[in-house]
Design goal:
The complex is a heterodimer.
Chain A: E1 20-25, H1 33-46, E2 51-55, H2 63-67, H3 77-81, H4 87-90, E3 92-93, E4 100-103, H5 116-127, E5 132-136, H6 143-149, E6 154-159, H7 163-178, E7 184-191, H8 193-197, H9 204-211, E8 215-220, H10 224-231, H11 242-254, H12 269-274
Parallel strand pairs in A: 1-5, 1-6, 2-4, 2-5, 6-7, 7-8
Antiparallel strand pairs in A: 3-4
Helix pairs in contact in A: 1-11, 5-6
Chain B: H1 2-8, H2 13-30, H3 36-49, E1 60-65, E2 70-75, H4 82-95
Antiparallel strand pairs in B: 1-2
The chains are: A alpha/beta, B alpha+beta.
């Protein structure tokens, strides 16, 4: 087995990294894949990395919406695969960071418009230009998922602390392993520490025990996410809330920094009254 | 005590969720469809009943899962043959 990336490899910020394809997936829908892809992509770019985020949800694209780039789409991944444009023409530059691009999905086609082999070819092209290629996978385990999984060097499985999401994640981890993927990490999204404390919600430890997979990030539930998606301005752009901090930590871990994993704790009554610092 | 617990910990549904998941994933990983355990139970009962009397109502077939291994735990209560006992005691009374 490869060594865990979570140990950190103390890279200088300006040392270019070998390109990595990271697939964000989950099995279950609505757990926060797209939000995570957008935020971690932007956070990596804020760290000075060259990043492209790829929407592989052909027919139901929405990474562009979460990032607020929907009006700038001219060509998409299917146009490139079918030879109607060059790759550069399909890439949309996000001006919020120095080197951040979006490769949008087509809205009018379906998952079969691109094959896993073509996804690998697209990513091989992108590897020449970028350090991080983040693929937002569609929900499910059909061809769209297979497309997103095929080129992955590293798989991020997003889950919510909830029975059906954890079960689907187990299936997805099994499928990824059967494709020879060894770098598989969990992101536990939408954790509500107060509910974990009241034993109404699966804890991080419970999930780790049940899935026996390493955790790369824990993202607390955060009201800022909805308004960020309303505006098309992901929380890492300027947010200081718990989710923004968690996404930035995930980006730092992916970029090789050793950032200890902190399990979010519920505030006591004193802290709730007088603020977290006291 | 239980009433007290119920008062302080409103719902320990997280523990229920964890247990359900552990069972569910054990079945998923072994690719055992939900109904198969009941079929296995019927097969075992049929096989053993050919030799001895089985208390069919109380047969239990469970999947026990630990970190790295899973096993079937089968509990089959047998019925003592009352008829045989009666015959024996009857025999004894005859001998008296």
């Amino acid at each position: 087995m490869l060594p865990s990336i979570l140990n950190g490899h103390a890279m200088n910020e300006h040392t270019p990294l070998e390109a990595q394809v990271i697939t964000v997936t989950s099995g279950k829908g609505g757990v926060g894949k797209t939000t995570l892809t957008a935020n971690v992509g932007i956070a990596l770019a804020q760290l000075g990395r060259k990043v492209v985020v790829v929407d592989s949800d052909i027919g139901l694209r929405n990474l562009d919406l979460v990032m607020g780039l929907e009006h700038r789409i001219v060509y998409d991944i299917v146009d490139y695969v079918e030879g109607r444009c060059r790759l550069r023409q399909a890439l949309i530059r996000d001006k919020r960071a120095a080197e951040l691009f979006l490769l949008p999905a087509a809205q009018t086609r379906d998952k079969t418009a691109v094959t896993p082999q073509q996804m690998i070819q697209v990513c091989d092209e992108l590897r020449k230009e970028f350090e991080f290629i983040l693929i937002d996978s569609p929900a499910g385990i059909e061809q769209g998922f297979q497309n997103a999984l095929a080129p992955a060097d590293l798989v991020l499985v997003v889950i919510n602390p909830e029975v059906s999401s954890v079960r689907d994640a187990d299936r997805v981890i099994g499928l990824a392993e059967s494709q020879g993927k060894t770098q598989i990490y969990l992101v536990i999204n939408r954790v509500v520490p107060a509910r974990v404390k009241r034993q109404e919600m699966l804890s991080v430890e419970d999930i780790k025990e049940v899935l026996s997979t390493e955790i790369i990030g824990i993202v607390p539930e955060d009201d800022a996410i909805l308004s960020a998606s309303n505006r098309g301005m992901p929380v890492v752009c300027n947010g200081k809330g718990p989710a923004a901090l968690a996404y930035r930590d995930i980006a730092r871990r992916l970029s090789g920094e050793h950032v200890p994993l902190e399990i979010p704790q519920a505030l006591g009554w004193w802290q709730r009254l007088f603020g977290k610092a006291s | 005590m239980e009433a007290l617990n119920r008062f302080f910990v409103k719902s320990n549904s997280a523990q229920v969720a964890k247990q359900r998941l552990q069972t569910l994933l054990a079945y998923d990983r072994l690719e055992i469809p939900p109904g198969v355990l009941a079929l296995i139970k019927d097969d075992i009962v049929a096989a053993i009943s050919r030799r001895v009397s089985v208390d069919c109502e109380h047969v239990n077939v469970n999947l026990l899962h630990e970190q790295n291994s899973s096993k079937l735990v089968v509990d089959i209560p047998l019925i003592a043959n009352r008829g045989a006992r009666a015959v024996r005691s009857a025999g004894r009374s005859n001998a008296r």
